[in-house]
Amino acid sequence: MKYIIVAIIILTSFYSATAQSQNTFFEFNAGYNIHDVNTKIKKGDKNLGSGLIISGGFGHYFTEHIGITLGVKYSTAKTTTKLDYNDHIDQATDKQTLLDTPIKNLDIQYANLKENTEESIIFVPVGISYRQKLGSKLLLDARINIESGFVVQQYFKTKSGSINVSNSYINTYNGVDVEVENVSQLNQYGAGNAGTFSGETKMKKNIFAAGASVGIVFPITQRLALTANIHGTYSLSDQKKKDFPHIFDGENYVGITQSALCTKIHPYTIGCTLGVKYFISKK
Questions:
Q1: Is 31 exposed, middle or buried (0-12, 13-18, 19+ CB in 10 A)?
Q2: Residues 265-280: tens digit of each pLDDT
């Protein structure tokens, strides 16, 4: 990350020193995103999230049409996953100390369980820009970016639905075999409704992504212009890090992205922004 900051400082200093004779601009954009943490899961349904995006940066055109851009962008990615299925766990540890061998089998039913997975990311996009006149006033601005990203925050939270746990075990107590099946009311032994959960999702935090945008530039003075853009970013990095066998093991809830139910994580965003562009040189 420090090398990216040093590069930004060097480029900013260079462009500031040569701006009076070259076509250099600063810009600021804000808008709306449809975004997705994009978990590839074996079971369940997914819904996309939405939210704001904020970005700023500068650029320089070497020719009438071709230039380079460098900026900083804050974005979020969010997915809501709905689970409806049964999970079976054999040979789990039982804390019921009266039994000689504390082993049990679990049946875990996820009933309309909705979990939000969300992360906030800061991107540093570097791109090639192409511009073209559209009539006497408007300009077309198209870009292709490569984007280095760092995750600021990751978390999960169950929003609604239930997790119902039933215990079954065959054990020995004082030399007598004891069979108990589908016990769902012994809350102190991990049975019953497990409640709601939230916590940090430990996905990989460094992201490499590709992006593209196309927009319209409308000058209102010699230096100032209004912009409207459509953009998209797709993560080339797989953020999958851990692979616990179960989302919930009767005691601990790890979240969908850290379980074996999730196979890949490639966040993406699609959205539109409005902004302003300020040209340091008048031409």
A1: middle
A2: 999 999 999 999 998 8
